[in-house]
Amino acid sequence: MNTPSQGGKEAARTPEELREQVAYTREELGQTVEALAAKADVKAQTKERAAEIKDQAAQKAALVTGRLRDKAAQAAQLVKDKTPDPVLDKAAHAAAQVRDTAARAGQLAVEKTPDQVREKADQAATMARANRTPLLAAAAVLAFFLLLRRNRRHR
Length: 155
Description:
By secondary structure, the protein is an all-alpha fold. It folds into three domains: about 15-80; about 85-110; about 120-155. About 85% of the residues lie in helices and about 0% in strands. It has five helices and no strands. This is DUF3618 domain-containing protein. It comes from Streptomyces toxytricini. Keywords: Membrane, Transmembrane, Transmembrane helix.
């Protein structure tokens, strides 16, 4: 493609060369306009930056979660190593008893609960699973207001 010469004098150009120069200039102008529009689009820049920060936070959370899991596993192993075997046996036996009792209580509750109540409970559970995000948001708002109320009472 031909561009204007730096010497100040231009040779006579053919119409085809002029068309090419116009097309080239239009392309450059279009790229410049796109670059300026991207710089001026604060909303898009904010969204992009928020996405970057979100990704960074997720990475840090995953890292911290991994570290916490490692520390918890180390602490659990340390407690297990330090706990005498008879105590571990009694704890395991008690845990098994609690599981059995809970299973029996759950089975008894299922047997004694009328069918209509069970159906309504199943419907409510299904709706809660389907609308998990709004329910969690409502719970967070409720918790916030309860904490705010509690803090105002203590002043």
